[in-house]
Amino acid sequence: MNAFAPLPTGSSPHVVDVGEADFRESVIDRSFEVPVLLDCWAPWCGPCRSLGPILEKLAGEYQGRFVLAKLNTEESPQLAAALQIRSIPMVMLIVEGRPVDQFTGALPERQVREFLDRHLAAGAGVSEAEQLRQDAAAAETPQAAEALLRQALALEPRNLAVKFDLVERLVARGAVDDAVRWLDGIAEADRDDRYDALLKRVALARNRPAGDKSELAARVAAQPRDFDARLALAAILIYEGDFDAGFDQLLEIVLRDKGDWREKARAQLVEWFSACPDTEAVSRGRRYLGMYLN
Q: What pTM, to 2 d.p., does this model score?
């Protein structure tokens, strides 16, 4: 089916096309019953083609915890103007008649999930499995978190977000073979950016870098331009899961060198950004990398 074609009526109970005639009823009024995710798109918009199928997939996967309302801005220009849409795709979450958050651009599936989970967690309709997932995130010990995630999967065996959370826990405690078995069981169609990132985490966890962390740290302290030691130290820190500290070592190389070492550190940062589960660490690393390269 053409990615830009409107969904046929009744193609999904959780996805609707909306326009100026039914916007109040289908979006505003409906948002008092269930959160409405408004997807503002246009037929000429390339990023919309990437984002639309992700939103529709998640609308089905979340099974009624939100309704996806698709607004073709070309067909509803007055409504687009009233919503002050300046860039598309623009996605807005509406709860009880008012917008609570929004984002623009074609985010990867992992970030869209994070956006939804951040807001739906506090709203109505949170499933028991999702509540267990939230409890796992706040658990006092890794063992307790893993047990809660396994309970959640017993309730919803196909819940991808829970599976990926469990894989992260398994990798963190060194149970790499178990993590791989869970990843191997995920269908091809569900292997998104987060799946790819976890594969990279598994590869990192299986190959401990050479060198002694204390000795390498001492070398760096004694000679800040010992880039070979910095790179080796960064690899060990990343292997241990300390992405922030690993990124810092590579950023120091980018800052201090203008030649081959800078490019080597930059390329390694980009590779490890895609494996890092900490979005704040990645955001910070990208920000400083951009500053140091300019």
A: 0.53
